[in-house]
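User: structure tokens for this one?
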Amino acid sequence: MSSALNRVRSLSGVSSLRPAHFLGHNWRKISCHDISFFSPEYYGLQRDFRRDVKHSYATEASFSCPEQLAPDTNNNADVERRVTNPLIRSHHHSQTTRSSTLQTPSAFEPQLERLEAKKAHSNPKSKPNQERKRNSKQIPTPSEYLSKTLQKHVFGQQEHSSLRTFHYGSRKTHGRPSRTISLQITLAEYIRLVDPLVSGSSSHATLSETGNNLDTAIAHVFRPETYAYLATRGYDVEDVVSWAWVLRSQDIRQAITRMLVLESDSQARQRTEIPVFIPLLLLKEHHLDAQSFRLLLVHALHLMSGQPSPPINSLYRAGKNIEEPSPAQSRPRITLGTCVVIVDRLVRHARQVWPRALPTIATVFARFLTRPHAKKSKKSNMSQQKLDRGTTEKFNTCLWLLSMPTKVNPFRAASIQQQAQFELLKSMASQKPVLPLSRRGYQAIVAVQLAHKKTLAERQSAELKSPSWPPWKEEKLGMDAQRGNEGLQSRAMNVLAQMLEAGYSHRVWEKTSTILAGWDTDRSPTVQTRTLVPRPASLSSATDDGTDNYAAIWAARIRATRTVREAWACFLSYQDQGLPPNPTIYAEMCAKLIYRQMAIKRRFDETGQALPGDGPEVHAEPASARDVIYVHTEPPTIEDLLQEMFSHGFRPSGRFLALLLRSAPTFRTGLDYLRHSELSQKQVAALCVVWGQPSDCPMSLAKALGSIPDTVFVSFIKLLCTRSKSIRKKMIGRDVLSPNDFPALTENTQSRQPLAALTDFHEGLGEWHHPRALWHAFQLVKLRQPACHSAWVHVLDTMSSERVSKRHTERIRCLYRIIGWHETLAVLNWMKVRNVDRGSQGFKALCIAFKKAVDAGIKYPGIMEEALTLIHKATRGDQYLSSDPDAFAGMVEAGLQTLKQEFEFLVLPSTNMPDLAEESVFVTGQADQSHPQMPTGLHVPSFVTLHSFVGALGIAGDDDGLLHLLQWMSHSFAELNEASQERQNGNKNMRLALVAMRMYLEQSQSKSKLQEGYEIFCRTGWEWPSDEEIGEYSRGLYK
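Assistant:
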């Protein structure tokens, strides 16, 4: 025991951790990463916002990892016991979890429940004990005990837990785990008892008192049996200190960095690896940014494949190849149960922030399930069949996980999901015997195919459909008769047919999918509709007798139409059958009316190239009267149909409510939609009460705000921003910036404003605007925890838009463009503080705002001083700002640096990331087929975004930046081209970006740069833009 006491006392704090190893370059490298991620400026912006909701890694729900997610990797029997225990299953969300996050209980839990039920049936004596456990207060598992210890003893004094929107598991536990010794319990006891004394954060006790208390705490935590247990597992006291150092990080990025460095250190010194429960805790985090997730993904792939992590020395040997491991080294370091949970969480995070990683995850998981040593030849036929059934079920469950919609751009990610599913299908087909698809597996493939864009044959078939209803094939040319039925059966329809041939009868979910795939239940044609189908859990086991199931089928029929009258005919047919009113039917019909109004406003009938079913747009009625479908009553207006819906007691919710808010014709109408919605009174109050400061918001309303679904919250923020894009006329030209019009600039200097409600504004201002709408939107996105990416992007886009009407002089408009750029930068800083991903749309808004500001400074050189004076008074309250003749040049230089940094953060994976992750065999380009490669970039921006970036670089005269961008576009041409094909006008937008590139390069003073750009065009295979294209583009005629 004396050796343990001396060892712990020698490790007094993080700075003394493994002193012999971390002295010198290695320790400085780790410190560099910590500093680069968490500089004082990073948190300084947040200090004045709300101390009680300061974001930190250890305050998230990631520490509620139950026992089966932290298995003992050296005891397979113990792992399987914990994986199959339903009393300790993971709950990612409470009942108020936002629906759009797509975080559901583990998809592997049904099989765990069946295994546990079978186990309980075979052991009747265990049933009374299990019943008593369910009815009494739960004893925490070791991992739950660790979670609560971290919550209480690390950050418990720094924030009010009642403001958190995430919960540390749904089980109410108390006391200590029944298991006396485990790695998690030892770590929790160290953090609870020893770490406060070592770090000096426990109290203001004297040195002698602290020493005595430390001796007592160490003796309690590291008892002889604990010390012996650590030794049998290959660990010692300094390992426990290292794990505490990782889990007490300030946020998730720092925790991941420390974990990777310690893992590499352990391999370099041939010590036991970090226990698996630590990366599992990190993966339990509800939200990860793309770069943090990529780090965890690299580590998880090494765990699943058995490939060793790169040694820490590789940090300082750039370019040195990693030796290929021997087959013995390639054995996975985790069990099957642990791998299943890791994949579940990896897929969830990938859907949220990095869908491009899904194929890599699927490939590694497939190889894990089918690895040669996974099947033992000595097993009996019955045991082998049982193993095959388990493998088949895991394959089919993973197929379904891969089919769930991504959080951002779900339709564009369908091709990536399809590729990931194909990786699993190829692996299943390669087995002997071939692993079959289950009903859930077929449903997963159908769901992805319904979200995928039409193939060429399907588009040609859609073009041949008659304008009348039903839309049978109509031969327009002689060659159409020779084409046969190619394309009439969509890919989703073919999968449904194969499902029927495999012996799975079509239930309600399959029937609705058949209608959306292009064929009704009576074999008459419908419109093949690209859509996101809901999870079939509520429909797959239902019969056709229920009213709700009839409504689901008829709702699909309404959606699979082209015009308002066709949808209205389906609506009337549902009513004519005597079926009771249903909110789903009303929601689908209202959506058709709303999207038709949107199409008229956007002049879709004149400019749109999309075929029916390609998007939500509703087409016009046929030109010929004989093709117009007959209905005995004319379609109603949106208001009339909603009033009828309200009269039946139905209230909008979820995505339907979000659509109503986005499309509300007036601000007052949008508030009426909220009043008639299914949101609770607290949720409505959280949205509509305008507080003087975010800190004034009560905790109960802050929790209610966090419980609102993401789709509804984002749509409400868009409603606020849309109704406040224009600066109020009476505020233009004044010598002060109004907080209501410039909330980001005046955040820290404005006086406290009175409490108000969105419904209380003077009717004389009109229903189109609200004086405090933009200020309220900015406060809501800051108050919302966790941060909502799409809502922040709406605010950023509003700040960068043209907010002064053309009725004012050009000089006034240019003045507010410069002010708008600085406010955009202020919003960007707030997003960085909260670690909110800007994405392609946010980066595009930055480029547009910067281009407008530079153009304004070029047109009116003296306007910069006036703009800076207003900004300085708004941000600092000073009445005078000395003139700076180089202010405009400084703004341009700083703006270019910001845009380049944001672009690198958008597309490059290695920004602010440890070099050891870049040395992984899954990342380097030297791996063969045995090591599936991760995507080379985080995001693939559209050519619309690249065109905005070209314009920003060009107007600032950054010729070198243009060439570097062109080189990157040439190098990433395959990915850019593949992404552009998923968009309707991808080729046209690509040409627009290339024409802008040539025009700005021709304005360069150096002819060599133009020649270099021409050579890049030729090497890539792009056609050099013609003089006519350049002329049309410069005149604004090139579309």
